[in-house]
Design brief:
This protein is α/β, with parallel strands linked by helices. The chain is built from 7 helices and 5 strands. A hairpin with an 8-residue loop joins strand 1 and strand 2.
Length: 199
């Protein structure tokens, strides 16, 4: 089923989403996407409902077809300093700031957001499964973050970030217990409680 194309009647909308909030390592990434009002693509969906190959194909399509798109991130150090929620907002703000077109309305996946430049916004729970621009943003954020973690894997293969992308898998948590953490781990973000969980 095709996603809803627009939330407003006549405003230029940017859909925003993030990837990597629940990870133990790596930045949180966010993307913002603006489509023309007549753009439609039934293949675009919540990134979690797509496999890696589908996401890569759609990433190319989104980057080619969007009126404007941008991807940004917030570092593990920033996550530790301001917490993961605020770091997610920071990454979204950075993505919005990079857009070549400033939106008149912002659509955000989730139930909270920090206002950006006094631009009106709407928070939509599971918005990535409902709105085209948010789903597209979820695809860009996910694929760019996955690429980043796969590159880090080359120097930190014991954590298997190529496969787990920094998420708290049993293998990842076991590697932390055996080898400690790196500069890419989030030192204050649920690391202790994650390691206390049973394997």
């Amino acid at each position: 089923m095709a996603l809803i194309q627009h939330f407003t009647v006549d405003k230029t909308e940017a859909g925003c989403d993030e990837a990597g909030r629940g990870c133990l390592a790596g930045p949180v990434f966010a993307a913002a996407v603006i489509f023309a009002r007549n753009y439609a693509n039934p293949a675009i969906n919540d990134s979690k409902k797509l496999n890696a190959s589908q996401r890569e194909i759609l990433r190319q399509e989104i980057e080619k077809s969007a009126l404007a798109w941008a991807v940004a991130s917030a570092s593990p150090e920033e996550i530790d300093e301001i917490n993961i929620l605020n770091a997610s907002f920071l990454a979204m703000h950075r993505a919005l700031e990079k857009l070549s077109i400033m939106p008149q309305w912002i659509l955000v996946d989730g139930h909270r957001f920090c206002p950006f430049k006094n631009i009106p916004y709407s928070c939509i729970i599971r918005g990535d499964a409902q709105y085209l621009s948010i789903a597209a943003a979820s695809i860009l954020a996910k694929t760019y973050r996955d690429d980043y973690m796969e590159k880090l894997h080359d120097d930190f293969s014991i954590y298997n970030w190529k496969e787990n992308k920094g998420y708290p898998t049993k293998e990842h948590k076991a590697a932390i217990l055996n080898y400690g953490i790196t500069s890419h781990h989030r030192k204050s973000f649920n690391l202790g409680q994650q390691l206390e969980l049973s394997f």
